[in-house]
Amino acid sequence: MPVTTIEGHEIHVDAEGFMTEYDEWTEELGKALADAIGVELTDDAWGPIRFLREDFKAEGGHTPTLRRVSTVGGFDTKKLFEMFPKKPAKKMAYIAGLPKPAGCV
Amino acid sequence: MKNLVILGGGTAGTMAANKLRKALDKVEWQITVVDRHDKHDYQPGYLFIPFGTYTPEEVTRSRRKYVSDDIPIVYGDIDRVDAEARTVSLTNGTVLPYDQLVIATGVTPRPDQTPGMDDEGSWYVDVFDFYTHEGATALAKKLETWKGGKLVVQVVEMPIKCPVAPLEFVFLAESFFTERGMRDQVEITYVTPLPSAFTKPICSEHMGHLLTERKIALESDYMVERVDSAEKMLVSYDERQVPYDLLVTVPLNMGADFVARSGLGNELNLVPVDKHTLLSRTYDDIWALGDANDIPASKAGSVAHFEIEVFIDNFLEHIAGKPLTGSFDGHANCFIETGYGKAMLIDFNYDTEPLPGKFPVPGVGPMSLLKETKVNHMGKLAFRWAYWNVLMPGRPMPIGAAMSMTGKDVPVA
Ligand SMILES: Cc1cc2nc3c(=O)[nH]c(=O)nc-3n(C[C@H](O)[C@H](O)[C@H](O)COP(=O)(O)OP(=O)(O)OC[C@H]3O[C@@H](n4cnc5c(N)ncnc54)[C@H](O)[C@@H]3O)c2cc1C
After folding, report:
1. The pTM is what?
2. Which is it for the CA torsion B358, B385, B60, B377, positive or negative?
3. What structural domains does chain B harbor?
4. Does the beta-carbon distance from B198 to A105 stay under 8 Å?
5. Average pLDDT over chain B, rounded to whole?
């Protein structure tokens, strides 16, 4: 696994830059990761990010899907697209320091 | 006597029932299958109905005929599972107690989950699914007389059963219109919530060209918010509009509503299980097989088949009070119809993406992985025979439950 340094912290990431060690993440790092992909983390945007972190842990290591963030987390999908444009599921996972959500063939 | 109740007598329920009947003592265990009705559809056949390759009647058989005679089938709509009392209630009032429960009630397309999709006057008029018997049949009728225009093939959200079926539909449609001499009157667009048509790198490298070659437009990362049936267009959450004359959609796929009512499901009514053992993550007397569970493998008949081989061993160990040693690897094996009488074949699991090579005999085949051939297409059509004659009765298949790396060309890093 490659190691990279963000804001003076060494973190483990995969080939696409998604963090691979849940416990290496801090909110400060989350902010830096958001900056790196041009997302502004407003107070509203922190809600879904914190939900992703908690849900991942509770569900035994699954990055929640966009549907789960809206139906279980209670966040409006349209707003998620505004806060994390174009690829909200992927961007939220990146910022929250979680594996990229699984795709298919 | 103990009761094993199997909910759903489709692909997974039928295979599990027949195999367990052979493996379990008849005096000790009674097996009961519950399903709504006697119609068992070969669902992969739905893909071919719109193009007239199969008639609607050809894909349906009697459920009773494929479940071993010594297993009773109770017909009725499942209303609820009481996991504490260990009972299943049907809407007709029947209550079935169980010692072990298998949930194999699959997933169904839910057009009602996308606003505007099943609007009266447009659903089955210019908006269709092909994931149900009714949808595929209605679409066949439509295509018989359709004069052309904008055809949009769209997937609402993953996971769906048979994730390659929408792409197969696109390829078969393209070849269908070409053969009818009307290809230049049809504009085809494929709309997907994923970042591209094929998302695994090697698959994408081998198949990505098919869309461009056949002049099929791609709209990716598309999360549909609603269907505007009056204006005839899809509208996404980020406000991209895709106009259509004919929309063929794969609606959101959800598990059965009784799963949610019983408090046993996730946000898509899928039952959370351990992805290697298939035992519920909450109850140690509930298993979920086939499309109904939440394992991160493709929802396909082939996956259900491989999964059940592992499940049988685990089930026997479990009732004997032993630790579960069977570990499912997510093995899937899918034919992908590419039109013009050809198909591709992919073989993969949780950890290994689809790779090129020969299958099932290394170096020989006769099938080729990730390559368009006529033999693969024959394989796809032969799958229907194998489904009824080998898979359902629980006869051994020449392909192992665990994926094999022999015969696959592994890329050099
Ligand atoms: C268009 C299409 C093409 C496909 N192509 C392929 C392919 O090429 N290869 C492949 O491997 N797979 C393919 N599949 C997928 C395959 O058909 C499914 O993965 C498989 O049938 C899943 O089996 P299952 O037993 O989990 O669910 P099902 O076979 O759907 O069985 C579920 C059963 O539960 C019953 N049930 C549900 N709810 C209730 C209730 N409340 N009360 C009573 N009964 C209930 C239903 O009546 C049904 O009989 C395709 C599917 C489709 C739709």
Report:
1. 0.95
2. positive
3. 2-108+254-319 (3.50.50.60), 110-252 (3.50.50.60), 332-391 (no CATH)
4. yes
5. 95
